[in-house]
Write a structure and sequence with these properties.
Bound molecules: zinc ion
Shape: elongated
Largest sheet: 2 strands, antiparallel
CATH topology of the largest domain: DNA Binding (I), subunit A
Structural class: mainly alpha
Number of helices: 4
Number of domains: 2
Oligomer: single chain
Order of helices and strands: HHHEEH
Number of strands: 2
Amino acid sequence: MIDPAVFRAMVANGATPEMLLAVVEAAAARQIPWAKLRIMAFERDGERCAYCGDGDGPFEVDHIIPRIRGGENTLDNVCVACRSCNRSKRHWDAPRKARA
Ligand SMILES: [Zn+2]
């Protein structure tokens, strides 16, 4: 997903429809299928919550920037989280970065 402000800025600067399409296609190409992304996240993070450090589980793979806010299915935007952190963060509004 692309920030609409990016499109507005591109149009304001004279971007052609072909240039806009290229941006959309590049964003789509970065997306990783969820089943594969889950495996990659566990391989990178192990069985430990990226938010609280809990190692007990059960674990879920969490979007750091939620999909509804434009977060992408990329490894940079997911982390392993325990269920309580993943559930509770749905109500958080402040932007966060799970991993240093
Ligand atoms: Zn946690």
